[in-house]
């Protein structure tokens, strides 16, 4: 009975795991910061459109309330359907909020997010499905969505999982 020699030492076991495709996953705090900044950018778009709409109608026929309503609707459409998808498509996955927190949205494989996928993620899944329909659940669905990275092994939200995207450090 002989003693079997130990296998040669493999240093790769001590090495940290390789970075995920696209870079290090962004922290929940960075994501929350980006979302907060983007909320205020979107709010500014809605307020500016509302003010312009009210002024346009006041100037033409004195019905500022109608113009205010149209302005709010236009601002909401622009901020929800145009702002984030257009910014992400043109800046490699960054909105003003993501740029401020030095994060970006990429595809699950780490590649750049195309414009169509940005529109799907931001307008359809986040805007209509999670936030729009989620408003019928007393906003429980949007709250769970935004808190999901706190307990998810991949630090992803529900909308990241649905759209095969990730938020990474830029």
In brief:
The chain has 170 residues and is mainly alpha-helical. Helix content is 57%, strand content 6%. A two-stranded antiparallel ribbon has the order 1-2.
Model description:
This protein is mainly α and about 170 residues long. The protein has one domain (about 25-170). About 55% of the residues lie in helices and about 5% in strands. The protein is built from 6 helices and 2 strands. The chain has a two-stranded antiparallel sheet. The longest helix has about 35 residues, at about 30-60. It starts with about 25 loop residues before the first helix and ends with a strand.
Low-confidence stretches: 12-18
Biggest sheet strand line-up: 1-2
The secondary-structure element order is: HHHEHHHE
Number of helices: 6
Summed over residues and divided by their number, the pLDDT gives a mean of 86
Using only CA atoms, what is the Rg? 22 Å
Shape type: elongated
Helix content: 55-70%
Total domain count:
1
Strand content: 5-15%
Please identify the structural class as seen in this structure. Answer: mainly alpha
Largest sheet: 2 strands, antiparallel
Termini separation = 58 Å
Count of strand segments? 2
């Amino acid at each position: 009975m002989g003693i079997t020699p130990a296998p040669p030492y493999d240093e790769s076991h001590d090495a940290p795991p390789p970075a995920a495709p696209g870079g290090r996953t962004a922290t929940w705090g960075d994501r929350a910061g980006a979302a907060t900044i983007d909320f205020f950018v979107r709010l500014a778009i809605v307020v500016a459109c509302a003010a312009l709409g009210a002024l346009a109608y006041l100037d033409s026929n004195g019905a500022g309330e109608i113009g205010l309503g149209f302005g709010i609707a236009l601002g909401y459409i622009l901020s929800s359907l145009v702002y984030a998808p257009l910014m992400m498509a043109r800046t490699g996955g960054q909105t003003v909020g993501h740029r401020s927190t030095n994060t970006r949205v990429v595809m699950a494989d780490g590649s750049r997010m195309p414009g169509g996928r940005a529109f799907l993620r931001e307008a359809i899944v986040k805007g209509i499905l999670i936030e729009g329909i989620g408003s019928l659940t007393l906003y429980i669905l949007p709250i769970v969505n935004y808190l999901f990275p706190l307990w998810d092994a991949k630090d992803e939200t529900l909308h990241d999982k649905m759209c095969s995207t990730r938020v990474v450090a830029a």
